[in-house]
Structure formats: structure tokens, C-alpha cells
């Protein structure tokens, strides 16, 4: 589903953020991306979203070499990848329902499809009763659920979560992890960059550890493996 071949990224400043990275992620995998601050996690996420370009190497997503595609085609790439951030990034002037519906509107879904799919999705993330509320009226965990609902409403094969529990307390974090695991079990490939040591250690999923732009560990059922 995701292949990186000899990928390097050197910023204009001269920093080698990633050096000769090779990763293959199969459909349906759940992958934690760990590493100290500055290890290269965000750069890797940005490369997958085509927010930045590699200096060298190839990135293949769903059998498509994204380093070759035209800028005009980037919106289509983005539809293959749902994204969730630490700070939720919801639209403050839209309700929960509207935030999720908006993600469908921009794909030219029909009103009928939207009316059918949004309530189903809000049910899946446990927010049916909050549909008419605004983000500021919700707890952090609830806002993250909205953000997750929005990220998967168009059924992307891949979900990238960048520190999704970074602003949440431990109990709420586990609820979010349970939801992500449920989404993963339905077939979505998940890549999650995180500093949540306890979560990584408990989940026993694949762990890719970066250090100074290199992969220092790639384990099928790994742990966090270092002290922050
Ligand atoms: P992480 O997400 O693991 O903290 P990053 O990918 O943000 O790591 O950073 C990797 C390295 O690249 C760091 O040395 C960082 O300072 C550098 N870096 C990140 N973004 C930029 C940028 N836009 N320009 C120059 N250097 C950058
Ligand atoms: P799995 O079926 O793969 O175990 P789950 O989503 O049920 O997937 O849980 C993943 C891991 O997270 C399990 O090891 C589970 O024990 C742990 N876990 C789930 N919820 C909590 C929680 N509230 N506190 C601590 N660990 C939890």
C-alpha cells in the first residue's frame, strides 16, 4: 500500500531529515512511527502527503509513484489518505455534522449520499447525539472523534495520524486508540506518528523507529524502545 525506496530528504538549510529510507507497508497494517524530536517523523508524513518532495528516491502509494504525479493530481492523491492531527483542525464555525459533511461536499458527493453517510459515520465514532454541536462545545476526545470521522468519511485506504493523542489524557487516548484499531480492523492501513510510549507498548503492533533520519528499528510487534 505504501512503499518508500531509497528515500532521502535534505532541506534547503542543508539538514538531512531522512537518509536512504526503505519501508514497505502492506494493506491493513497498523504502523507506529516513533523517534525523538527531530528524528524525521514529520518529514516522512509530509512526504506521504506530498506536502514536500524527496531529494532522492521513490514513494509509491496504492501502486502509484507519487513522486511522478503532476501537481494537478495531488487532490486525488489526498483522497486516498485520511489525515488526523494532534490539534484536531476542525472548522470552528461548522457543527459536528457539517464538519464531516464538508469533507464529502468537496469530493462532489451528492446531497443524498451525504445525508446517508454522515449519520452512519457519526454513529461509528459514537457522536450521533452531538451532531448539532460546535467544536468548542466538545471535549478534546470528542473533537478528535470528529476529526477521525472526517478523515475516513470518503473511505480512504490509508489513514495517517500525526500524534493523535498528543493533547488527550490517558483514558481518552485509549478510547481514541480503540477507535483507530476498529477502523484498522475494517481494512484501513494506519500509520501513526507518536510519543505515546504506553500506547505503543500495549498495542504490540509494527513499530518503525527513526533516529537522525535513519531507520534504527522495524519490528513486526514492537515496543516504544527508548526513553524520551
Ligand atoms: P520529527 O517530526 O521526528 O520531530 P522532523 O521531520 O520535524 O522530525 O525534523 C527532522 C529534521 O529536519 C530536524 O533536524 C528538523 O530540524 C529538520 N527540519 C524539519 N523541517 C524543516 C524545514 N522545513 N526546513 C529545514 N529543516 C527542517
Ligand atoms: P487487540 O484486539 O489487538 O488487543 P484492542 O484495540 O482491543 O486490540 O487493544 C489493543 C491493546 O490496547 C490491547 O493490548 C489492550 O489490552 C490495550 N488496551 C485497550 N484499552 C486499554 C485501556 N483503557 N488501558 C490500557 N490498555 C488498553
UniProtKB/TrEMBL annotation:
Keywords: ATP-binding, Cell cycle, Cell division, Cell membrane, Membrane, Nucleotide-binding. It is a peripheral membrane protein. Residues 2-227 form the ABC transporter domain. It is found in: Cell membrane. The keyword ATP-binding applies. Homodimer. Forms a membrane-associated complex with FtsX. This is Cell division ATP-binding protein FtsE. It comes from Paramaledivibacter caminithermalis (strain DSM 15212 / CIP 107654 / DViRD3).
